[in-house]
Amino acid sequence: MPEISRFLGIIIRMYLREHAPPHFHAEHGEYEITVDIKTGVVTGRFPRRALNAVLD
């Protein structure tokens, strides 16, 4: 899976041929979320500080 960015221990990845809607994955330690690019809806669990950094 292509890595888009890495910061503050957070890894942002995006699959090339994955299901709709367009989204990206973020990992931080044992936590993982997906973020819908159009709506910003987050699915999964993430520490609050790390989630704020991803959404910024």
* Low-pLDDT segments: none
Mean pLDDT: 92
Q: What share of residues are in beta strands?
A: 35-45%
Strand order of the largest sheet: 1-2-3-4-5
Main beta-sheet annotation: 5 strands, antiparallel
Q: What coarse outline follows from CA principal-axis ratios?
A: globular
Structural domains: how many:
1
Distance between the termini: 23 Å
C-alpha Rg (nearest Å): 11 Å
Number of strands: 5
Q: Structural class of the helices, strands and pairings?
A: mainly beta
**Helix percent band:** 10-25%
How many helix segments? 1
**Helices and strands, in N-to-C order?**
EEEEEH
What is this structure, in a nutshell?
Helices cover about 15% and strands about 45% of the residues.
Describe the structure.
This protein has about 55 residues and is mainly β. It has one domain (about 5-55). It is built from 1 helix and 5 strands, in the order E-E-E-E-E-H. The mean pLDDT is about 90.
Index terms:
56 residues, mainly beta, five-stranded antiparallel beta sheet, 1 helix, 5 strands, globular
Present the secondary structure layout:
Elements: E1 3-7, E2 10-13, E3 23-28, E4 31-36, E5 42-45, H1 48-55
Antiparallel strand pairs: 1-2, 2-3, 3-4, 4-5
